[in-house]
Amino acid sequence: MRVIRIENLKDDMVLARPLFQKHGIVLLNEGATNLVRYKEKFKQMGIFYLYVEDDESRGIEIDDVVKQETRNEGRRVVGEMLKKLLNKQRIHINEIQDVVTSIIDDILTNKTVIVNLTDLKNTDDYLYGHAVNVSVLALIIGHAKGYSEKQLMYLGTGAILHDIGLALLPEDIVRKPEEKMTSEEKKIYRSHPKLGYETVKNSWDVDAFSKLIIWGHHECLDGTGYPRGLKGNDLHEMARIVAVCDVYDELTSSEIEPGKKMPSYLAMEYLSLNAGIKFDAEIIELFLNHIATYPVGSMVTLNDGRAGIVEKQNEGFPMRPVVRLLNVADYAIADLMKEMNAVIVDSE
After folding, report:
1. How many angstroms separate the CA atoms of 25 and 19, rounded?
2. Rounded to an integer, what distance in angstroms lies between the CA atom of residue 235 and that of residue 228?
């Protein structure tokens, strides 16, 4: 199995995982063939990447730390929550907490040190998928920090709700890259943490930590964040965790620039460059050590020109996975823990 861009689909490729629409509705089942004929339809629906299997990727297993059923239920619950919010209906926080409990259970039963995250969101359900992804990432980091299950519940709930204020903004602003916004649009967009906080402050049975996350997930250590421009220790640790996870998931998603997402390694590089400046350095270190830089199933190019698919991780060494080489006899492997002169120079 591997992850591939829609434009690189070939006739012999078979869908390796079910393809879901909004709210977890199945669009195509695992095993679907003739995917090439759906290229344009996929693009129209905001689907730019697929899990596929072919001769080159056969036998490679992509194990997600969180079950697909858990993700689908999370998307469904978030979608229903946002719908109720817009219709000014009562929202039951226990439904969100049930999803968080399922995510926590999945994470606690997974013994893998380096986690592969290759959840493929489409533009139709970006906000739902983003909420769930950020919660998964935050809970992985919280678990790595030794949080209790109660603390993980606070963290996961706040992470799922962190962008709830975006649901109250005009969709054309939410979907626009911030660098392309007018000053007025940017002002409106940057109000969403406060809007989200005010939404849950009095009317929902939300814990204080989750409220701090909602209000503080766009703040930065150096005071350049928003909406309050907080600095250093004024930022709650849980908000710092969600800030990192939010940025990473946004960078590696194709929602803002359809069909173009930043490879994981470049997003990791961005986080590293801002460790101790915008983001908490300890959280960045945990993130880099526990989230795969080159997820299993991703396409990579080595410094000597060889290309391949990441087959598995070398525990404790996220920059040096095992790569199944393409265009060589019997799909030989390059174990980057053994080939110390070989490094990955590109990935998608």
Report:
1. 8
2. 10
Element of type H or E holding 27:
strand 26-28
Asked whether 39 and 8 are in contact (CB, 8 A), the reply is no
Residue 139 and residue 171: Cα distance in Å, rounded? 28
Tokens of 88: 């000014």
The residue to which tokens 């962008």 are assigned: 163
**For the stretch 290-324, what's the b/e string if a residue is b when 16 or more beta carbons lie within 10 angstroms of its beta carbon?**
bbbbbbbbbbbebeeebebbbbbbeeeebebbbbb
C-alpha dihedral, 173 to 170 to 163 to 201, nearest 10°: 140
Reported residue count of the chain is 348
Contact 299, 307 (CB under 8 A): yes
Specify the pTM.
Answer: 0.91
Q: What one-character DSSP code corresponds to residue 169?
A: S
pLDDT in tens, 126-154: 788 899 999 999 999 999 999 999 999 99
Helix (H, G, I), strand (E, B) or coil at 237: helix
Distances 101 to 7, 21, 76, 96 between C-alpha atoms, Å:
38, 24, 15, 9
